[in-house]
Design a protein that fits this description.
The protein is of the alpha/beta class. It folds into 3 domains: 19-130 and 229-290, Adenylosuccinate Synthetase, Chain A, domain 1; 135-225, Adenylosuccinate Synthetase, subunit A, domain 2, CATH 1.10.300.10; 292-450, Alpha-Beta Complex (Adenylosuccinate Synthetase, Chain A, domain 3), CATH 3.90.170.10. It has 13 helices and 20 strands. It has helices at 45-52, 105-117, 138-151, 163-171, 178-181, 185-202, 210-224, 231-240, 272-279, 312-320, 339-349, 388-392, 419-432; strands at residues 32-37, 58-61, 70-74, 77-81, 94-97, 102-103, 127-130, 134-135, 228-229, 245-248, 286-294, 297-299, 333-335, 337-338, 353-357, 367-376, 379-380, 395-402, 436-440, 448-450. The strands form 5 sheets. Strands 9-7-5-2-10-1-11-15-19-20 form a 10-stranded mixed β-sheet, with helices on both faces. It starts with 31 loop residues before the first strand and ends with a strand. This is Adenylosuccinate synthetase. IMP binds at residues 42-45, 67-70, 159, 173, 251, 266, 330. Pfam families: Adenylsucc_synt. It is found in: Cytoplasm. Belongs to the adenylosuccinate synthetase family.
């Protein structure tokens, strides 16, 4: 049995992997399969996408930026992705960064270089970037940090990657898109000067060497040009031709700008709606929607967390799961699985199936609690609070299940799991009325159980 003080997983973002994913067939070849985080992120979406990509032709990112972090382990090598779709490891797959993504070009090329050195090959022929995607400039990142500093104790705990300021520029219509960079360079330069002047007025401490930045972006224009195209018409054509498309949602539903724990959220729609707006796809092309759920709950940054544990059990989950953010390196807050949260995100996203990750992290627990209801003023509520004041004051009702107190890391079949572990999975299915298709019990690709 693994020690509670030893980290089992050297990298984190949820661990779900297995060669049994090769058996998985996407529903209806003309339907798009979507993978979404069902909690506050870090559930293991990257692993799931990497494995489902075996049966996909195209893998897409639809929103967010390099504030996201996905770790994929292939043949013992760890690949960290922030902007790239996790499916880019599959050399038979085309990877698309859609119009809803905001792109920091220095970060993108650094990410490509780092993963290329680890063995990622042929990406030049397999990566397509939308001409409608907005650019994250260094000034956006500076502004992000300055905004957080101004808020002091009321800061939101952002990644300071410039994501919020870039989406703000987009919404106020002074943003700059990839297509602008590749168009008339004089127009691009004028737009950049105007953008920089506006941010300088808002943040006098902000420093921008405009001429240096313009020189740098002329170079980026040359580097990125071969990768850029109209991804909307491309995807529609490929779907019409029967190509299998897999969409990877970045962040997670509880960080959605509309449906998450606002204002402690990201600046994009990381729920199902972001798939449509971030890729230009209509709802009727979406088939399966898989929600990825960690067997417990974690959260990076500030904001209410009803099932958070501040005791030895919370520390055990952090240690055994090695819960450290891929992007920020911040320690993740840990708590019991909150099915009120997952039921709420299921309402918003319409999950047709679930993938339960990191079940093995619970191996040493004699009993396990699961949040099943919220009470306010002594009464059970039938909604998920939009008010952070309310959410901070809910009392969680738990059901308690016996643990299995043994290692399941080497289990590869559902019927070989301890009865208590099977009951834990069944309790989740019964509460949510959604089938669990896959169960992650370790780090490697072989560490998956197909529940079908």
């Amino acid at each position: 049995m693994a020690s509670a003080t030893n980290s089992k997983h050297p990298q984190v973002n949820g661990e779900v992997t297995s060669n049994s994913f090769k058996k998985y067939k996407m529903d209806n070849q003309n339907k798009v399969t979507v993978v979404l985080g069902a909690q506050w992120g870090d559930e293991g979406k990257g692993k799931v996408v990497d494995l489902l990509a075996v049966n996909a032709d195209i893998v897409c990112r639809c929103q967010g930026g390099n504030n996201a972090g996905h770790t994929v382990v292939v043949d013992g090598k760890e690949f960290d992705f922030h902007l790239l779709p996790s499916g880019i490891i599959n050399q038979k797959c085309i990877s698309v960064i859609g119009n809803g993504v905001v792109i920091h070009l220095p970060g993108l090329f650094e990410e490509l270089k780092k993963n290329e050195l680890k063995g990622m090959q042929g990406w030049q022929d397999r990566l397509i970037i939308s001409d409608r995607a907005h650019i994250v400039f260094d000034l956006h990142q500076q502004a992000d940090g300055l905004q957080e500093a101004e808020k002091g104790k009321n800061s939101l705990g952002t990644t300071k990657k410039g994501i919020g300021p870039t989406y703000s520029s987009k919404a106020t219509r002074n943003g700059i898109r990839i297509g602008d960079l590749l168009g008339d360079i004089a127009v691009f330069e004028e737009k950049f000067r105007t953008l920089a002047a506006g941010y300088k007025r808002m943040f006098p401490a902000l420093e921008v060497d405009i001429e240096s930045e313009l020189t740098r972006y002329r170079e980026y224009a040359t580097k990125i040009r071969p990768l850029v195209r109209d991804t909307v018409s491309y995807l529609h054509k490929e779907i019409k031709n029967g190509r299998k498309v897999l969409v990877e949602g970045a962040n997670a539903a509880m960080l959605d700008i509309d449906f998450g724990t606002y204002p402690y959220v990201t600046s994009s729609n990381c729920s199902i709606g972001g798939v449509c707006t971030g890729l230009g796809l209509p709802p009727n092309v979406i088939g399966e929607v898989m929600g990825v759920v960690k067997a417990y709950t974690t959260r990076v940054g500030d904001g209410p967390f009803p099932t958070e544990l501040h005791d030895e059990t919370g520390q055990l989950l952090q240690d055994r799961g090695h819960e450290v953010g891929v992007t920020t390196k911040r320690v993740r807050r840990c708590g019991w699985l909150d099915l009120v949260v997952v039921r709420y995100t299921a309402m918003v996203n319409g999950y047709t199936s679930l993938c339960l990750t990191k079940l093995d992290i619970l191996d040493t627990l004699k009993e396990i609690k699961v949040g099943v209801a919220y009470k306010l003023n002594g009464k059970v509520i039938d909604y998920f609070p939009s008010s952070m004041a309310e959410l901070s004051n809910v009392e969680v009702e738990y059901m308690t299940l016996p643990g299995w107190a043994c290692s399941i890391e080497d289990v590869r079949q559902m019927d070989k799991l301890p009865e208590q572990a099977r009951n834990y999975v069944k309790a989740i299915e019964d509460f949510l009325q959604i089938p669990v298709k896959f169960i992650g019990v370790g780090q490697g690709r072989e560490s998956i159980i197909s529940a079908d």
